[in-house]
Amino acid sequence: MDLMRIDPNRRLRTPAAILATAARVLAERPDASTGDIAAAAGVGRATLYRYFPTREALLAALEAQAHEELAARITDAGLDRVPVPEALERLLRAFLAVSDCYVVLVREHELGKDHHGMDAHHKELDSELMAPIRAVFQRGVDDGVLRDDLGIDTLMELFGGIVLASLKAGVPRTLGVEETAATLVSYFLDGARRRDQPPAG
Q1: 144-201 pLDDT, tens per residue?
Q2: DSSP letter for each residue of 81-102
Q3: CB 66 within 8 A of CB 98
Q4: pTM
Q5: Which residues, 6 or more positions from 98, have their beta carbon under 8 angstroms from its beta carbon?
């Protein structure tokens, strides 16, 4: 084989393919080893370690990729151009597109394995993520769609809690992205009461 004719983009594709495989495998099997991930990605462990020398390095790269993809999807979602309920659904669809990554990262944080220092790049990404999200919730309060007695931060925490709980429960895998987004927004806005039941009191 002529080594000079190797696809120059292969080096770029390989780590991206490893990360995509790692997100999927770890979401399904939290105890999967780096060897399991390498096998699923179709590469040797030496290749995986060349790009990600440790599990911590793999998770840090996974977090950075998830943040960047989510930030791009939120930017493209046009949240400010639609009513708040639709904006929330679009926001959820953006999250669900990278949900495997976030399931893995949430589990790791819960296990006390937060190895990912909040460097300047991550702080910038967090700011890029939070500003448009916060704007949706502020608009919801201003428009009377969302209650105003809890505060924006509390509303965002409650919404995030519902989303994370649904991811850990595997709801997107059962319902699909579109139905999950619609269901979770309805749950957040209307509560868990059956539609055919009268209000309490």
Answers
A1: 999 999 999 999 999 988 988 888 788 888 888 899 999 999 999 998 777 666 655 5
A2: GS-HHHHHHHHHHHHHHTHHHH
A3: yes
A4: 0.75
A5: 23, 66, 69, 70, 73
